[in-house]
């Protein structure tokens, strides 16, 4: 997130275009209508205006942009802002939801967005399975409890130390199942 020393509302058209480009909204910044004269004009546009005038029709994209603007206005920095969308896709692999990586990457879901996902947005990302929704919800809860530390999942955890199972990756669970000679879920279904 790029913060300008000046007030966001006071940005002129050119500065606003630069701000949009430097915060991952290059296509919006390059096509920003000239009649949007300030950051304030841009910030106070309705979702309908953003959709009609700027082509921002997807709810998640609007939320990401509004969240980014809110963070620029807010002096207090949230640690989750440091986590990129690439980190989020790796995290999805670690928690066993890698089938959703493409959509999260396409929608540029970063740590800041992950932290504020609603149930409706989870469904917009294509997660309809209640078990997957629950897994995502619990993983986000752990993410918050660990204060957004990027390494909170213990990769290759000691499978004999059962106190840390909440932080095992899906690969660690598979290793543990193998160690106790229990078939993995895909092997159980084949029998």
TrEMBL record:
Family annotation (PROSITE patterns): SAM_DOMAIN
GO cellular component entries: presynaptic active zone
Protein keywords: Coiled coil, Repeat
Keyword Metal-binding: no
Gene3D superfamilies per the UniProt record, alphabetical: Transcription Factor, Ets-1
InterPro entries in the cross-refs: Liprin, SAM, SAM/pointed_sf
A Gene Ontology biological process term: neuromuscular junction development
Domain SAM: 83-146
Protein name, UniProt field: Liprin-beta-1 (Trinotate prediction)
Species of provenance: Myxobolus squamalis
């Amino acid at each position: 997130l790029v913060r300008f020393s000046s007030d966001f509302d006071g940005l002129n058209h050119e500065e606003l275009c630069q701000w949009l480009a430097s915060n991952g909204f290059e296509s919006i910044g390059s096509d920003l209508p000239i009649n949007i004269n300030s950051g304030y004009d841009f910030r106070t546009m309705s979702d309908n205006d953003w959709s009609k005038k700027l082509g921002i029709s997807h709810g998640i994209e609007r939320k990401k942009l509004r969240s980014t603007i809110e963070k620029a206005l807010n002096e207090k920095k949230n640690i989750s802002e440091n986590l990129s969308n690439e980190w989020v896709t790796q995290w999805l692999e670690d928690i066993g939801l890698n089938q959703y990586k493409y959509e999260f990457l396409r929608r540029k879901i970063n740590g800041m967005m992950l932290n504020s996902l609603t149930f409706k947005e989870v469904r917009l990302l294509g997660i309809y399975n209640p078990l997957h929704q629950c897994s995502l919800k619990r993983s986000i809860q752990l993410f918050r409890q660990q204060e957004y530390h990027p390494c909170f999942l213990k990769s290759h955890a000691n499978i004999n130390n059962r106190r840390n199972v909440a932080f095992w990756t899906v690969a660690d669970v598979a290793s543990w199942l193998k160690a106790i000679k229990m078939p993995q879920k895909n092997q159980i279904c084949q029998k």
